What we know:
By secondary structure, this protein is an alpha/beta fold. It contains 9 helices and 14 strands. The protein has a 5-stranded parallel sheet. Strands 8-14-13-9-10 form a 5-stranded parallel sheet. The chain is globular.
Amino acid sequence: MDVFKSMVNEQANEQRKWIDARFSLQDPLAGEFVYRSGHIKGAVHWDLEKDLSDMQTSGGRHPLPDHDALTELYQRSGIELDDEIIIYDNGGEPFAARAWWVLQYGGFTNVHISLEGYEGLVETGEAFETEIPVFERSSVRPQWNESILALKEDVRQLVDEKSEEVLLDARAGERYRGEHEPLDPIAGHIPSAQNFDWAQLVKEGMFEIAGEGICQLERMVKKDQSVTVYCGSGVTAAPLYAMLKEKGYSHVRLYAGSYSDWISEGDLPVETSTNEQDGAL
């Protein structure tokens, strides 16, 4: 699957749709601010916490919105299932990948993550503007792909049955091992999970389609294996999911609630020992 796309030397296409997914976990208002300060011409802004998460419900720190909320997001953004859609953030970040996954979940068929962030896109010659576009509402009806979503019950079954499916933790190694946990009240990882820090996929502010990080990932997980990825809240696991699809892995799911959902009721097991197959570099 052609997930990541460099826009260098791409011809202009007035039919192409743009999504600006810039966001800052340290400053939740920053994404909308930079969008209003300048964005690719015609881009709609999708905010991680206002659009791509339902912060008023349970299910982890960035719960996935329900079908009705996502349908409303798609329709007010004026997009159709077969539109060519390019998503960008600042480059090498997880936010465009989260938006990409949300579109995969809705059944959109021609969506790509720009390898270049906003500044890089401007440097390639993409037109930009400060005016906020007005979008003609679409009547799109999503074709939900539930096979790419893992719920807590699915992961619990995977753990309880000692499934051969690979469970991959996308957080930094020290969080996976339980040595340092700045966000969640219980440190550690889901039992049986291996660790692959998603940041290994990024070099100089861009995702690498080839490189040592990819080699490490391909050594850890075989192409014919089923994989479920998670992180702390479902956000940084999205680029790991996207890269697995880019490299041809067919059976990949995202545990959207992730570790923060797993520990939310305090009744599920957690490990802090290092898995012998830990993939963190």
